[in-house]
Amino acid sequence: MSQNNAYANFAKKVAHICGKPRTFSLAVAVIVVWILTGPLFAFSDTWQLVINTGTTIVTFLMVFLIQNTQNRDTEAIQLKLDELIRATQGAHNALLDLEELEEDNLDAFKRKYQALAELARQQLVRGQLDTDTPEP
């Protein structure tokens, strides 16, 4: 198993576990215990440092795990959408890799589709259908 694959599997499992209500409850319990121990430690700087350090470390690590999971999910969704475009008769194959285009190119596509949407709304106002392919 490659190192990337091992990390992806680890990230997927941790993200799955961290999204469960039990994990949230455990985090709340840790904070409650920390609060309850405040008087025992006289609300000292060390007492505060423990929670600050712990939450900072967990947050730092979770950012990378969540980003990995989100990147994989986004890529999978893009591939599914690409397949739908590719398999739909009359769809524009030029849209297959929009996520790879520069901002100017994306804006040009966006303006084109905004114009099509405006035309469709005008057709609806005139009592026409907006479900046809508007291009000749």
Textual characterization of the structure:
The N and C termini lie far apart (51 Å). This protein folds into 2 domains: 3-95; 101-136. The protein contains 4 helices and no strands. With 136 residues, it is mainly alpha-helical. The mean pLDDT is 89. The chain has helices at residues 3-18, 21-36, 45-87, 103-125. The chain is elongated, with a radius of gyration of 25 Å.
Give structural attributes:
single chain; 136 residues; mainly alpha; 2 domains; 4 helices
Describe how the helices and strands are arranged:
Layout: H1 3-18, H2 21-36, H3 45-87, H4 103-125
**Any idea what the shape is?**
elongated
Cα-to-Cα separation, first versus last residue? 51 Å
- Total strand count, please? 0
| Cα gyration radius (Å) | 25 Å
Number of helices: 4
**Strand residue percentage:** under 5%
Q: Report the biggest beta sheet as strand number plus sense, adding barrel if it closes.
A: none
Query: How does the helix and strand content classify structurally?
Result: mainly alpha
- Helix proportion: over 70%
The average pLDDT is 89
The total number of structural domains is 2
SSE string, helix = H, strand = E?
Answer: HHHH
Low-pLDDT parts are none
